[in-house]
Amino acid sequence: MDIKAPIAEKVPRRLSIHGHTRIDNYFWLRERENQKVIDYLTAENEYTKAVMKDTEELQEKLYEEIIGRIKQTDESVPYKKNG
């Protein structure tokens, strides 16, 4: 396979909770508006799609099998009336 898995950059961040300090190298990935995070996640999704390409038929078969075992109704979750 020609495509290489993206590797997330390590950006150490010191976190102190309840008197314990630790380093989280991937805390920056929580920044949803950060373009670097968006670019990394896009690359990760493209990599996954490429790696899983050969299994698309199997994925579809498994999905259909699982859906076939679920009772499809228009009912909602039961609830107590006036409760």
UniProtKB/TrEMBL annotation:
GO terms for molecular function: serine-type endopeptidase activity. Residues 9-82 form the Peptidase S9A N-terminal domain. Pfam families: Peptidase_S9_N. InterPro entries: AB_hydrolase_fold (IPR029058), Pept_S9A_N (IPR023302), Serine_Peptidase_S9A (IPR051543). Belongs to the peptidase S9A family. This is Peptidase S9A N-terminal domain-containing protein. The lineage of its organism: unclassified sequences, metagenomes, ecological metagenomes.
